[in-house]
């Protein structure tokens, strides 16, 4: 049984004693004469539920309520009032109070109210634990300290809250688009519903419609005698993830668009209209704009799928996360294979930072799995990772060739190029840091005072 802690905040000793006596056999009960004392107690014991009198000496209940909520956003508060002062009760409910009771307190009614409140807490904790487990299982694509992945994580938290707004995930192969789709589902109101994944590239085009929408018995030659439920119907009250959505042919695109606009569909071979509620999350590594120009993808479907777009950065765009991810996979595969490797050698770390990842996180994961399985020493070496043949100087030269424009025959004004480069990165750092100079300075590996001086010199006030 979950142990719940309840605060009783009331200036009448008889009420505190009476309620405590009734509840202490089932719950941990702490009582306080003032709101200030209860707020101070948060440092030692955080409550699940607070019984809070509206009329208190010093800070009253309506003033204390937002203070409690600031310390613990999801704490449930039941207001106590000596009379039905509707204005104060309404004000408290607007501030987030769960319920209210009226003095004189009837213990049976109070116990029912408390039981309902604690059931809400129990369900909330259960969902949070399940969501934490699911999201933890999907960690690889979201591990990182780079600004690029932090921006994606913040955006996911924001857009996942809707139960039905379509989301289109864009990114290269191996960046973790499917895991991000799962994270969106597990953070959404649809969490308790199913997550159904469809690889559009893996289903033959002539079977795609029947797979998505299902079919009636005898709908076509070879159809099951009992018919079949489609994947869209299977995702009712949940999330349908369409992976490789760019591989849908134009006929399937038209049918998908019709469903997305109305929520209605027909099984193959049926005249009976069906309706489901499901969120469509899709993903592709293809350039859909280019496909639209070549009449390979419908523009109207693109706009419908991409009400919200999430661009997943490649591993090469977040190179500072490479070692963090590598160490995560080292731990994962140590546990999987019963190994006890202690880490990654300095030479291997340096080469991992230089490596160009064509397969993104998937490539890194595969590299680490092979290395942990076959390593002979206590830490991973360049040989274990298959990186021993990388020429550091050549890699750096190739990276420079890609990063910088060629030197023209007429030459350049190097001082002007340097100034332009400084101006670009200072502005970019301020943009990424949302105007926070300390954070921007950190992005450029500069001390704050040096950053501020150069910022004024390069860009001005």
Quote the distance from N terminus to C terminus: 61 Å
Topology-level CATH name of the largest domain = Rossmann fold
Structural class: alpha/beta
Tell me the name of the CATH homologous superfamily of the largest domain: P-loop containing nucleotide triphosphate hydrolases
Mean pLDDT: 85
Strand content: 5-15%
Structure, briefly:
With 461 residues, this protein is an alpha/beta fold. It contains 20 helices and 16 strands. β3 (49-53), α3 (61-71) and β4 (76-81) form a beta-alpha-beta unit.
Give a verbal description of the structure.
- The model has no long low-confidence stretch (mean pLDDT 85).
- A five-stranded parallel beta sheet has the order 2-1-3-4-5, with helices on both faces.
- It has 20 helices and 16 strands.
- Helix content is 49%, strand content 14%.
- The chain has helices at 13-23, 35-41, 61-71, 86-94, 107-137, 147-159, 177-186, 205-213, 231-234, 250-262, 288-293, 299-305, 322-337, 346-354, 360-374, 382-385, 392-403, 414-432, 437-443, 448-458; strands at residues 5-9, 28-32, 49-53, 76-81, 99-102, 167-170, 195-199, 214-215, 228-229, 239-243, 264-266, 273-275, 279-284, 308-311, 343-344, 379-380.
- α18 (414-432) crosses α19 (437-443) and α19 (437-443) packs across α20.
- It has four domains: 5-129, Rossmann fold; 147-311, P-loop containing nucleotide triphosphate hydrolases (Rossmann fold, 3-Layer(aba) Sandwich), CATH 3.40.50; 315-401, Helicase, Ruva Protein, domain 3; 409-458, Arc Repressor Mutant, subunit A (Orthogonal Bundle), CATH 1.10.10.
- α4 links the parallel β4 (76-81) and β5.
- It is α/β, with parallel strands linked by helices and 461 residues long.
């Amino acid at each position: 049984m979950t142990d719940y802690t309840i605060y009783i905040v009331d200036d009448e000793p008889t009420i505190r004693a009476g309620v405590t006596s009734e509840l202490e056999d089932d719950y941990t009960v702490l009582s306080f004469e003032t709101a200030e004392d209860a707020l101070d107690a948060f440092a030692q014991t955080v409550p699940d539920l607070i019984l809070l009198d509206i009329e208190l000496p010093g800070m009253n209940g309506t003033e204390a309520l937002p203070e409690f909520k600031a310390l613990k956003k999801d704490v449930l508060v039941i207001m106590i009032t000596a009379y039905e002062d509707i204005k104060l009760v309404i004000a408290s409910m607007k501030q987030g109070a769960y319920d209210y009771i009226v003095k004189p307190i009837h213990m049976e009614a109070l116990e029912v109210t408390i039981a309902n409140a604690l059931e809400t807490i129990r369900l909330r904790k259960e969902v949070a634990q399940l969501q934490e487990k699911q999201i933890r299982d999907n960690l690889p694509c979201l591990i990182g300290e780079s600004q690029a992945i932090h921006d994606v994580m913040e955006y996911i938290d924001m857009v996942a809250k809707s139960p039905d707004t379509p989301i289109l995930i864009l990114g290269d192969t191996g960046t973790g688009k499917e895991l991000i789709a799962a994270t969106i589902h597990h953070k959404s109101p649809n969490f308790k519903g199913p997550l159904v994944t469809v690889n559009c590239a893996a289903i033959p085009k002539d079977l795609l419609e029947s797979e998505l929408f299902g079919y009636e018995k005898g709908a076509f030659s070879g159809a099951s005698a009992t018919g079949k439920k489609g994947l869209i119907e299977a995702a009712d009250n949940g999330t349908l993830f369409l992976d490789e959505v760019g591989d849908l042919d134009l006929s399937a695109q038209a049918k998908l668009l019709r469903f997305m606009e109305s929520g209605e569909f027909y099984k193959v071979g049926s005249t009976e209209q069906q309706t489901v509620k499901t969120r469509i999350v899709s993903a592709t590594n293809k350039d859909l704009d280019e496909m639209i120009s070549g009449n390979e993808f419908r523009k109207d479907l693109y706009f419908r799928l991409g009400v919200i777009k999430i661009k997943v950065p490649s591993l090469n765009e977040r190179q500072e996360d490479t070692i963090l991810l590598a160490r995560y996979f080292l731990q994962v595969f140590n546990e999987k294979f019963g190994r006890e490797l202690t880490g990654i050698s300095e030479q291997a770390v340096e080469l991992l930072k230089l490596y160009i990842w064509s397969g993104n996180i998937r490539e890194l994961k595969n590299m680490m799995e092979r290395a942990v399985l076959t390593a002979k020493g206590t830490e991973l070496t360049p040989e274990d990772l298959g990186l021993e043949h990388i020429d550091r100087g050549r890699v750096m030269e190739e990276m420079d060739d890609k990063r910088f424009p060629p030197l023209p025959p007429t030459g350049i004004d190097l001082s002007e190029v340097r100034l332009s480069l400084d101006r670009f990165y200072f502005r970019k750092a301020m943009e990424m840091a949302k105007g926070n100079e300390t954070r921007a300075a950190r992005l450029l590996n500069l001390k704050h005072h040096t950053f501020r001086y150069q910022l004024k010199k390069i860009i001005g006030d």
